């Protein structure tokens, strides 16, 4: 798998902040590219899965990383270009 | 006259056949009423200090190392699972290979309201020679009670009763007291008979209320689901055809704790399965197992006599509360 276009670390952040960071930062990469996020929040696994399903991005991979997990998500051309983020986020 | 757990503890492994309370005493009548709702006879009932204890002992007494437990059961059951059985996104047990000695599958899930086909699963489990434990707490008094199970446990608080656990053990079921060392001091399991009487009265009240208001609460359930869909980016858990008074949804980008607080300020007491609200910082295993968003979670357990005014007000404030917390 190719290197992610963006790698972010949300260690120390608790729900919903890791998913919020992912939703914001994925907008910085081109459609079709991937973003990797590291998180030590136990809720991040189910939440990244559910978030990808809700927004339309593709969940590619989940792997152990240090005290937490690393997730790989591909940005898709979603129906809502803002990922449902409220204004001002 | 001995009631419930005291009897089973005294009898150790052979838990069956203790004398029933006199049929015409108040406690005898209470037992009769509860038993008839469960489709068992009064001597097949056992009363324990609370629901979790009843759940724990009911499954533990099916002496087998092969317990298979659905992924959305309570932690009392999951802690005893050799294998956890996956469920669908709506929370229904998925097709699985039968053949284990014992299964635990709750009837109505207390977090997401999904109803399992207990009679159909029970038949299949019995055909393959296994036993079925079921938690009947959340459908009792509302829906016709299923019967293809071997042992059931109930938390009386689910139907507005006192802190009391009820265990129904069909007399043909091979079950042995998992705590035989407690036998000589059964006082630990003593249950005041007034609790049993109170539970029977609560079940009667709850049944009447559910009958009167079932359609009304179902209408609210549909309206709330519709409202969540209209607001957008809300993940509704469970099955739309589930029990109407339990509704769980998760608000994307919102914090569960903030939502609970915001609803409280509006006068609504809601629960949450989000990690930030739980004591161990783990999100609800029911939400995880069904693949639902775990943050921003709100769980409503609606009383069947909740007035229309308050239900309508909830629908009215929902968009504002969600928006407020998302922006916070």
From TrEMBL, chain A:
<dbReference type="Pfam" id="PF01206">
    <property type="entry name" value="TusA"/>
</dbReference>
<protein>
    <submittedName>
        <fullName>Unannotated protein</fullName>
    </submittedName>
</protein>
<comment type="similarity">
    <text>Belongs to the sulfur carrier protein TusA family.</text>
</comment>
<dbReference type="InterPro" id="IPR036868">
    <property type="entry name" value="TusA-like_sf"/>
</dbReference>
<feature type="domain" description="UPF0033">
    <location>
        <begin position="8"/>
        <end position="32"/>
    </location>
</feature>
<dbReference type="InterPro" id="IPR001455">
    <property type="entry name" value="TusA-like"/>
</dbReference>
From TrEMBL, chain B:
<protein>
    <submittedName>
        <fullName>Unannotated protein</fullName>
    </submittedName>
</protein>
<dbReference type="InterPro" id="IPR015421">
    <property type="entry name" value="PyrdxlP-dep_Trfase_major"/>
</dbReference>
<dbReference type="InterPro" id="IPR015424">
    <property type="entry name" value="PyrdxlP-dep_Trfase"/>
</dbReference>
<dbReference type="InterPro" id="IPR015422">
    <property type="entry name" value="PyrdxlP-dep_Trfase_small"/>
</dbReference>
